[in-house]
Design goal:
Layout lengths: L9 H37 L1 H21 L4 E8 L6 H10 L19 H9 L2 H11 L1 H4 L5 H10 L1 E5 L6 E7 L2 H22 L3 H34 L4 H32 L5 H21 L22 H39 L4 E4 L12 H28 L5 H17 L2 E2 L2 E2 H14 L7
Antiparallel strand pairs: 1-3, 1-4, 2-3, 5-6
Helix pairs in contact: 2-13, 5-7, 5-8, 9-12, 10-11, 10-12
């Protein structure tokens, strides 16, 4: 009916009241939050001089710490990955490192050429390389340690070795207080890596080269012995070339025989004309005797040397001795030629094995050599100073806000009362209170009073 008020259910009243009341409460809450934020900002603005002083103290302390930290320099070098031609050498080296003590842990994933960088890193991290570097630079004295294990640990802390997975380039970084020593240690890592890779290489070409060198040394000794024996035989028997000597001696004997026949014919003709006492007959007989003597020497009827006359003995072997000397000469000559041929062939094979070994050995190629660093790498002084100032500012801000919050806590709050009682108990246990205040204030007042009165009377 008109004029009759509509009846509303209780649920509808709750909804209406919520719609009407909640916006006002939300606005009040936001207004209170904004008021609290502005109050804190006002509090910090009022304490700006305190914050500036606190920040200055933090900056000063951070600057002092930054300049007290020892300076370190870092030298870096980069290595190129090994060539693909070094596959066999890497494979054998990887297989060998499975049981090589400190290198045994490297062989877990060393099944392909893509892990050659990991192999190099493992070798660089091995105790063998580290011990050589420690001994070379006397790092135990530098690091002020007595044990080799401690020196290794310090060296590992100061050394960074990483591999770029995409390019395979190895990066070695060494930090030290001395820039020259840092660069020298980085170079020593590369040298020791190259040396150790060559020492540990056991490829087929390497084994072949080692065998050929040993065999070559043995053949060289046999060749020297054979050449010495051949030379002694030739010198003792005047056997320069048996074949040529025999041919020459036969021709010479034939020539002497012809001259001898001609002389004998001439002698027969002269004897028919002249007597035996004739000078011409005697001269022809003397020439015939000399020709017969030479033929006897060449034929094997050598005369014994006359005392005091060394020229009477023959300088060359006779024709009868040449066949006997020829057999021995041929044996020695053949043995010497065989040794020479074997030596030449082994020399060629050894050179080829060296070339193949060089191809299979994973060579260490330096992309960027280590240089003496010009700038320090640690500490970052500006960063330390900035962080010190920021930390001091944050600490001062927290202190002011916490102090203001503590003041706003009611004195009857149980937590505040407990904190005050605990703090008072601690001060009493430590004995830092006195009847007229803290001992610090008492001593301070006593010192100030003595200064005012010249230090003549006590309080």
């Amino acid at each position: 009916m008109p004029g009759t008020p509509m009846r509303v259910s209780p649920e509808q009243e709750i909804v209406d009241s919520t719609v009407l009341v909640e916006p006002s409460r939300l606005d009040a809450y936001e207004e209170g939050e904004n008021h609290a934020v502005f109050k804190r900002l006002r509090l910090l603005l009022d304490a700006r001089f305190f914050l500036l002083r606190f920040t200055a103290y933090g900056l000063t302390l951070a600057t002092l710490i930054a300049f007290l930290i020892p300076v370190r320099y870092e030298a870096r070098t980069q290595l190129m990955p090994p060539d693909n031609d070094a596959g066999a050498g890497l494979a054998s080296l990887m297989a060998m490192t499975r049981g090589a003590g400190g290198l045994g842990m490297l062989a877990g994933d060393l099944l392909g050429l893509k892990t050659s960088g990991a192999l190099f890193i493992g070798i660089l991290r091995s105790e063998t390389v580290e011990d050589r570097i420690i001994d070379k630079f006397d790092l135990k004295s530098v690091y002020s340690v007595r044990r080799m294990q401690q020196a290794r640990r310090r060296l590992e802390e100061n050394t960074q070795i990483a591999e770029d997975r995409k390019s395979g380039i190895l990066d070695i970084g060494v930090s030290d207080h001395d820039p020259k020593r840092a660069a020298a240690i980085a170079k020593a890592y590369v040298e020791e890596l190259d040396r150790l890779v060559v020492e540990l290489n056991t490829s087929a070409a390497h084994r072949e080269r080692v065998f050929l060198e040993e065999r070559l040394l043995s053949v060289k000794q046999d060749l020297d012995s054979s050449a010495k024996e051949f030379s002694q035989f030739s010198s003792e028997n005047t056997a320069i070339d048996i074949k040529e000597q025999g041919k020459a001696m036969v021709e010479a004997a034939a020539s002497l025989q012809g001259h001898l026949i001609a002389a004998q014919s001439e002698l027969e003709g002269l004897r028919q004309i002249y007597a035996d006492t004739n000078v011409r007959v005697k001269a022809v007989r003397a020439r015939i005797a000399e020709l017969q003597k030479k033929l006897a020497e060449m034929g094997g009827g050598d005369l014994a040397p006359v005392a005091g006359n060394t020229e009477s003995a023959s300088l060359y072997p006779s024709i009868r001795k040449l066949p006997l000397l020829g057999v021995r000469y041929a044996e020695l000559y053949r043995a010497n030629k065989i040794q020479e041929t074997v030596y030449e062939l082994l020399t060629q094979q050894c050179e080829m094995a060296k070339v193949q070994e060089a191809k299979e050995t994973p060579s260490v190629k330096v992309l960027d050599p280590a240089k003496v660093p010009e700038k320090k790498s640690f500490p970052p002084r500006l960063l330390i100073m900035f962080m010190g100032a920021v930390l001091a500012l944050m600490t001062g801000t927290v202190w002011i806000l916490a102090k203001d919050g503590w003041k706003n806590v009611s004195a009857e709050h149980p937590g505040k009362q407990l904190a005050q009682d605990t703090f008072a108990s601690i001060k009493a246990d430590l004995g830092i209170t006195s009847g007229n205040g803290t001992r610090f204030h008492h001593v301070r007042d006593k010192i100030l009073w003595r200064k005012r009165n010249g230090g003549k009377h006590d309080i």
